[in-house]
Amino acid sequence: MEEKKIIFIGFGNVAQSLSHLLAAKQEILKTQYGFSTRVVAIATGHHGMAMNPAGLNSEEAIALVTAGSSLNELNRSAKSDSIIELIRASQADVLFENSPVDVLSGQPAVDYLRAALECGMHAITANKGPVVNAYRELTDLAASKKRRFLFESSVMDGAPIFSLFRGLLPAIEVNGFRGILNSTSNLILELMEQGKTFDEAVKFTQTLGLAETDPNKDVDGWDAAIKVAIIATVIMGIPLKIEQIERTGIRGISPEMAQEAVKAGERWKLICSARHEGAKLVAKVGPERVKASSPFYSINGSSSYVQFETDVLPGLGIVESDPSPMTTAYGLLSDLVNAVRNG
Ligand SMILES: NC(=O)c1ccc[n+]([C@@H]2O[C@H](COP(=O)([O-])OP(=O)(O)OC[C@H]3O[C@@H](n4cnc5c(N)ncnc54)[C@H](OP(=O)(O)O)[C@@H]3O)[C@@H](O)[C@H]2O)c1
Question: pLDDT per residue over 217-274, tens digit each?
Fold first, then answer.
């Protein structure tokens, strides 16, 4: 039985859910895919790092981080002075990168993923920053090392967006898309319809582990805009920087406006879109008041939706209902299986 050694960079909501999911799926991984996994290293921002080639106990690591303690006490190897050094020393087969997003540079995640690929690991992330800022570089580096750079969870968590276009829709051309891609904003708008203040609604999404580490990234439309840029770059093949996207968040929508729309049979939604207009790709994120006949109207709570317009399938929609960090973890797990199968 092949064993894949794993290193986690970032060990918050998503990575902890992934470690539970990996434990729950060991039997299926072994019997259906012919491999098992062992966690050999974990690094965080403020809770230390640890490496143990014999295997780290993920439950112990979760307990330490949850208690606000350092992982350093689990270390059974020569101490690394930096996360990059830990990646290089880990001799892992697969790196999972789940640190907070930096929208404008993708760092330090880009450096972590690059170091992993240079060491011959598969590099898998739920972090949008490195995808929008270094998709081409990391994909080419992975190909040169016969490894994979995969990021299914970066848009719509565990829903298969990139693997769908990579595998199941050959030769299709995407002309544009519209969607609700930031589940935190969608839930905040709904909570305001129900009478919560903006601040109460934001707090609630944080307690669910749904909001970004910095929730301003959700409410100001950054998360939605970066997803638009990623879809345009990866699926439409048009490299788009976040600065090229017209972006308005949901701060301009008050509870009164949300409730007034509902009374009129409509709802406020944060709509993401990109579309060819002549030779130009016009990309936007902004609140729109949608009618009951719109497919966006019934996207409730933290669900998300994207509808692609393609040359052969005029409207192809994907809904993801009620995501959680576990849903995101599933996207990472599916990337792992795809990397090992096809890497
Ligand atoms: N939450 C979701 O459902 C979801 C969905 C899709 C995508 N994502 C993406 O997944 C990633 C992780 O999200 P999360 O919800 O797990 O975040 P989180 O709970 O805030 O965890 C972030 C982790 O990254 C660590 N970290 C902070 N700065 C770091 C650095 N400079 N280098 C290495 N590690 C660092 C943190 O350590 P300390 O706590 O010690 O600082 C923590 O362990 C983000 O990029 C997010 O956008 C999340």
Answer: 899 999 999 999 999 999 999 999 899 999 999 999 999 999 999 999 999 999 999 9
Does ligand 1 have an atom closer than 6 angstroms to the CB of 16?
A: no
Q: Which of 8, 9, 13 to mutate to test the pocket of ligand 1 (most atoms within 8 A of CB)?
A: 13
H helices present in 208-295, as ranges:
216-219, 222-234, 255-263
Cβ–Cβ < 8 Å for 92, 6: yes
CATH topology assigned to domain 171-320: Dihydrodipicolinate Reductase; domain 2 (3.30.360)
Q: How far apart are CA 178 and CA 274, in angstroms?
A: 7
pLDDT-based confidence at 343, cuts 50/70/90? low
Residue 157 beta carbon below 6 angstroms from any ligand 1 atom: yes
Distance 99 CA to ligand 1 centre (A): 4
User: Taking residues 112-117, what's their average pLDDT?
Assistant: 98
The domain locations on the chain are: 2-158+325-342, 171-320
Token readout for 64 is: 């330490």
| pTM for the structure as a whole | 0.94
Which residue has a Cα nearest atom 27 of ligand 1?
Answer: 45
User: Domain 2-158+325-342 is classified in which CATH homologous superfamily?
Assistant: NAD(P)-binding Rossmann-like Domain (3.40.50.720)
Q: Look up residue 150 and give its DSSP letter.
A: E
- In the predicted model, is pLDDT for residue 211 greater than 90? no
**All residues at 6 or more sequence positions from 343 whose CB lies less than 8 Å from its CB, including other chains:** 122, 146, 147, 148
